[in-house]
Amino acid sequence: MSRIFSGIQPSGELHIGNYLGAVKNWVALQEQYESYFCIVDYHAITVPYDPEELRARRREMVVSLLAAGIDPSMATLFIQSMVPEHTELAWIFNTVTPLGELERQTQFKDKASRQESVPAGLLNYPVLQAADILLYRADMVPVGEDQVQHLELSREIARRWNARFGDGYFAEPQAKLTPSRRILGLDGNAKMSKSMGNTVGLLEEPASIWEKLRPAVTDPARVRRTDPGTPEVCNIYHLHRAISPPDVVALVETQCRTAGWGCIDCKKVLFDHMNAELTPIRARAAEVRAHPERVEQVVNDGAATARRLAGETMREVKDRMGLA
Ligand code: TYM
User: Fold this and answer.
1) 219: Cβ below 6 Å to ligand 1?
2) pLDDT per residue over 23-49, tens digit each?
3) C-alpha 157 to ligand 1 mean position (Å)
4) In the chain, how many domains are there?
5) 114: DSSP letter
6) Residues 42 and 162 grouped into a single domain
């Protein structure tokens, strides 16, 4: 059975961009693959943060992932900092990673431009990401489009380490994308992301979702209710494609082109399908929260399982490098 690995930062609430771009796919793939899903708290500390908030967000992320459908009887769900081998392998990979490659990463350039003083951890962020994946010798990494460049660098790091010590020891991990690989925020022009403040939370209450959805940007050429629209340029249409069933998507398309529906009608239909997807998730989150001891157990068991495989990899790596 092939192995998959993926990670998510506990840097805020899980939003529908994370869910539709990655986590929903994790839930589908956990049945077919040996799966490792990691809450990457060491990545989250590369930008300014509050310790108490991080503690709460790590817990909340476990709840959200379980509510979204990650099943600990099929997948290993764990927290990165509970498995020290991640940082150990990251240090080793730092010694084979070209500085120029790190400086070229668009996420680094973007985040660095927003900080006055840039910590080295922000530059080395993708090295830790490569360690996350390769520690479990994962073949496939289900992610959204914004992680593709980091994945290319992970392959480069695997190649360089292999060339020096490995003789093909590390497989080159491939990104696994979905059609919803890049969900835009409700402003319709930037990727849905916490830092842009344009998100819809996975566990957000319907009233609050509708408050955001109602004024959300649509086809800018559709000024009057009677103007026909162009679905392809409308973010609401793209959200329908990510969430609504195919027959509804087809209906949305004709109703938009013929001005049969106004944008508000179209948003109401989207809202209904969002609710159909999110209501059971919110209900599961309430159930999960009612049993904090079980959540703790999941995370402890996950770390123990992860450490077994991580330890195996580190023994082999150190042996080949003259460190054991
Ligand atoms: P993070 O925490 O930003 O996002 C988690 C996952 O959600 C996807 N995603 C999106 N997909 C579609 N549309 C969006 N608007 C959107 N926003 C986020 C991301 O692509 C990601 O798959 N560096 C990673 C975390 C990480 C990791 C790893 C991932 C650390 N180590 C190893 C995979 C493998 C990150 O910041 O994801």
Assistant:
1) no
2) 999 999 999 999 999 999 999 999 999
3) 19
4) 2
5) T
6) yes
